[in-house]
C-alpha cells in the first residue's frame, strides 16, 4: 500500500520566505497513520528551508544531498539546486527516489524534481504534494487580495487546503527566513 498525504507550501514576499508543511501521513486511501509528521526543516546553517512530498526515506536522502551541494557551492541555492537536479536525474540510485522538494532562502524558491526540473515560480509561491494545488490556489488569492505577510498566507492557505484535501491536515510545521 502506498503512503500518501503531504502538502508543502512556500511563499516569498519582500520581507522573506515562509514554508509550511502539514503533518498527515496516510496509508492507502483511508487510513491516517500519523498526524504530526515534520516535513519542513532548516538545512545549511539554518539559512535554507526545505520541504518534501513523497517517500520519507527518499526525502531524507535528498535533504542530505541538497545540504551537501549547498556546502559545496558556498550556500548558493541556485547553483546547488541545479547541480542536485542533474545528479538526481542522472544517478542510477537517485533516479529511483520518489519525492519532490521545495527549497527556499531569502532570495529564491525552487521546486526540485527527479526529472531534472528546477522550477522557480513566477509569483514566488510554490506548492507540492496531495493538497498542493489547493494550497497554491488559496495562497495566490490571499497574496493578491490581502496585505498578509508570507507566514500568514502560508498558515491560512494551508488551513484552506486542509478543509478540502483528505490527505492534508492542519497540524503545521512552519519555518521562516527574513530577508
From TrEMBL:
EC number in record: 3.4.25.2
Catalyses which reaction(s): ATP-dependent cleavage of peptide bonds with broad specificity
Subcellular location: Cytoplasm
Chain sites annotated for binding Na(+): 162, 165, 168
GO BP annotation list: proteolysis involved in protein catabolic process
Cross-referenced InterPro entries: ATP-dep_Prtase_HsIV_su (IPR022281), Ntn_hydrolases_N (IPR029055), Proteasome_sua/b (IPR001353), Proteasome_suB-type (IPR023333)
Single GO cellular component term: HslUV protease complex
Means of activity regulation: Allosterically activated by HslU binding.
Cited SUPFAM superfamilies: N-terminal nucleophile aminohydrolases (Ntn hydrolases) (SSF56235)
Top-rank taxon, per record: Bacteria
Molecular function GO terms recorded: metal ion binding; threonine-type endopeptidase activity
Active site (catalytic residues): 6
Main location: cytoplasm
Signal peptide, first to last residue: none
Alphabetized Gene3D superfamilies for the sequence: Glutamine Phosphoribosylpyrophosphate, subunit 1, domain 1
Alphabetical keyword list: Allosteric enzyme, Cytoplasm, Hydrolase, Metal-binding, Protease, Sodium, Threonine protease
Function: Protease subunit of a proteasome-like degradation complex believed to be a general protein degrading machinery.
Record's subunit section: A double ring-shaped homohexamer of HslV is capped on each side by a ring-shaped HslU homohexamer. The assembly of the HslU/HslV complex is dependent on binding of ATP.
Family to which this protein belongs: Belongs to the peptidase T1B family. HslV subfamily.
Protein name per the record: ATP-dependent protease subunit HslV
Originating species: Halodesulfovibrio spirochaetisodalis
Gene: hslV
Amino acid at each position: 500500500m502506498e503512503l500518501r498525504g503531504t502538502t508543502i507550501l512556500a511563499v516569498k514576499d519582500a520581507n522573506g520566505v515562509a514554508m509550511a508543511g502539514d503533518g498527515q501521513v496516510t496509508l492507502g486511501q483511508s487510513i491516517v497513520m500519523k498526524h504530526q509528521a515534520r516535513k519542513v526543516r532548516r538545512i545549511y546553517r539554518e539559512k535554507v528551508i526545505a520541504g518534501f512530498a513523497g517517500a520519507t526515506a527518499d526525502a531524507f536522502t535528498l535533504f542530505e544531498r541538497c545540504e551537501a551541494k549547498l556546502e559545496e557551492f558556498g550556500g548558493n541555492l541556485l547553483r546547488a539546486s541545479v547541480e542536485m537536479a542533474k545528479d538526481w536525474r542522472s544517478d542510477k540510485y537517485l533516479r529511483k527516489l520518489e519525492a519532490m522538494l521545495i527549497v527556499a532562502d531569502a532570495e529564491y524558491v525552487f521546486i526540485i524534481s527527479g526529472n531534472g526540473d528546477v522550477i522557480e515560480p513566477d509569483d514566488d509561491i510554490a506548492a507540492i504534494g496531495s493538497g498542493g494545488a489547493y494550497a497554491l490556489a488559496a495562497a495566490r488569492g490571499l497574496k493578491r487580495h490581502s496585505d498578509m505577510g508570507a507566514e500568514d498566507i502560508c498558515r491560512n492557505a494551508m488551513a484552506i487546503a486542509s478543509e478540502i484535501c483528505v490527505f492534508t491536515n492542519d497540524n503545521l510545521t512552519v519555518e521562516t527566513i527574513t530577508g
